[in-house]
Amino acid sequence: MAIAAGSTTRLWTLVAKEFWRKTRRRLRGGPIHRWRYSGRTPERVLIAPPDLRLADRQIALEIYYGRYPLSGHLVETGGKSPFQIAVANPGWQKALHGFRWLRHMRAAGTELAAANARALVSDWITIHGSNISGVAWEPGTTAKRVIAWLQHSSVVLQGAEFPFYRAFLKSLAMQIRYLRAMAREMPDGKDRLRARIALAFAALSLPAPASALRGATRNLAEELDRQILPDGGHISRNPMAVLEILADLLPLRQTYANQAETPPAALMGAIDRMLPALRFFRHQDGSLARFNGMGATIHNRIATILRHDDTAGAPLLHAPHSGYERLSMGGVTVIADTGPPPRIDVSNAAHAGCLSFELSSGRRHYIVNAGVDTYGAAEFRPLARATAAHSTATINDTSSARFSHSLRVNDLLGTPLIGGPQHVPCKRTDQQGSQGFLARHDGYVARFGLLHERELKLSTNGNVLAGRDRLLRPGNAAIRNNGRDFVTVRFHIHPDIGLLKDEHDRLVLTADEADTWVFTCTEVAPEVEESIYFAGLGGPRRSRQIVLAFKASEISEVHWQLTRTAIAGHPAKS
C-alpha cells in the first residue's frame, strides 16, 4: 500500500507541475511576453541540414490536390488552406503544423512543388505566425517545424521573392526565440530533447554569434546525457524513441561537420550507443520488438538509419539500463522486457508488459506482443497497454501496472503508467550452447501478494526455447487459496502464423515455407483463444493466443517449451 500511496503522490505532483507549466505557457504566449520573441531577422540560411526520413513525391502531388495523408489519416480540404479547417484528430493537426511533409515537396523536385510549399508556409505565417497558442505552438510541434523549415529551406525559398524570404526568416527567428524560452520548462522526454536538437540546428544553420552555438551545444549535451541511457536506450524504454531520436541526431552530426564545428562528445557518444541499441531491438526481418509504445515498423526507415552504423558483429544480448534481454541462436531471436516501468513523467506510452517476450525465427514472427496501432483510435490504447496484450503472465485478469486515471489527470497528462513493478532483478544464465536469463517482478505484490518469476533458455542451436513461469509469495510462504490466485500465462501468435494440432494433440505453429514450432506444457493443458494484433501496417488484425490457466495455490510453477521441428498437423480447435 505504501508503494501505491507513493505512486499517487508522484502522480498528483506531476499534475500540479503540468498545470503550472501550461499556465506559464499561456502567459508566455500573451501580449505581455510576446515582445520577447521579436528581434533581429537573420539575413539568410547558411546551410540546409540533411533529412534522413523517407520522402514520397506522390504525397507531394496529393497535397497539391488538397489531400493531406498525415498521421495515418487522410483529410481533403476542398480547396481551402489546411490551416483554416477544423480537424478533430490531434495527431493529424500536430503532423500538419510540424511540417515534416515538406520533404515530399523536395523529393518531387519540381517548381510546382516548390511553389506549393512556399504557399503553405505563407499560409501558416499569416494565420498562425503571430498567434502563439494552440496545437501550432506546442513546444514539441514547434521543434519539429523549426527543424523541418531549416532542412527544407531550399525548396521553400526556391524562386521566392524578397518579401516572402524576409517573412520566412522573421517567423523562423521568432519560433527559435520562443522555443529557447520554453525548452527548459518542457515536460521530460523526447520532445524536450528534440527542442534542444532544433536549437542546435538553428545555431548552425543561421548567422549567429559563437556564444549562441556554445550555449545550444552545451544544453544539447546535458539533455543527451540525461535522456540517453548507457546502453543506448531512451529513458521512456520505447524502441521507437531510439529510432526517432537517431533520425534527428545523425543529420545534426553531419551539420556540425559541414560547418566545420566540433560536435559535442555527448552527441557522438549518444549516437555510438544508440545505433547498437536499435539493432538490439531488431528482429531478423528488420522490424522492432513491440514493447512500451512500439507499433508497426516501416522497414526502410530503419535501414536508412542503420546505414550509418559502423559497428560490426552481432547485436548486444544484454541491455541492463533499458531493462531488456536478447537471446539469439541459429536464426532464432528472443527479445524480452526485464525492466521496471519508466519514470512516471515519461511513461505516457509505456505498457504493463513486464517479463513479456517475442520470438522470431528467420524472417517470421511467432510469439509477439500485441503492440499499438500508432494512428488508430485512442480507445484501443488501454487494451494494447494491458498486461493481457503481452506474452507474459497476468494474475486475476489484472494488469501489473495502472494507467487509468480521472478525466482531470488525462486532460493534463495523458495516461501515465503508475503502480507497476518496483524491483525487477534479472541475471543471465548463459552456458556453452545455450543463452538464457532468470528474472522476477513485484508488480502484483501490493494487490495479490504474489511475485512472478520467469526463466527463458534458448538452446540446441536455437531449436528449443524452454520456459518456466513461477508464482511465489515474498519469503517463499505458501500461496493461499483465497480466490485471488488465478493465473493466466499468454502467448500471442502473430496473425500470419497458422495454429494446428498434430497427431499427438500438440499445438503446432506453422507458416508457408518457414519453420514449424511445437508448443508443449508439462503441468497445464494449453488452450487456444482469440486475440488482437494491433501493430499491423494496415491496423488491428484478428489473431490467436495460447493460454495456460491455473490457480497458483494448486500449481505454482509451469514448464513450457517451444521446439522447432517439422510436423504435419490438422487445424486446432479454438
TrEMBL record:
<dbReference type="InterPro" id="IPR008929">
    <property type="entry name" value="Chondroitin_lyas"/>
</dbReference>
<protein>
    <submittedName>
        <fullName>Uncharacterized conserved protein, heparinase superfamily</fullName>
    </submittedName>
</protein>
<dbReference type="GO" id="GO:0016829">
    <property type="term" value="F:lyase activity"/>
</dbReference>
<dbReference type="Pfam" id="PF07940">
    <property type="entry name" value="Hepar_II_III_C"/>
</dbReference>
<feature type="domain" description="Heparinase II/III-like C-terminal">
    <location>
        <begin position="313"/>
        <end position="561"/>
    </location>
</feature>
<keyword id="KW-0456">Lyase</keyword>
<keyword id="KW-0732">Signal</keyword>
<keyword id="KW-0574">Periplasm</keyword>
<dbReference type="GO" id="GO:0042597">
    <property type="term" value="C:periplasmic space"/>
</dbReference>
<dbReference type="InterPro" id="IPR012480">
    <property type="entry name" value="Hepar_II_III_C"/>
</dbReference>
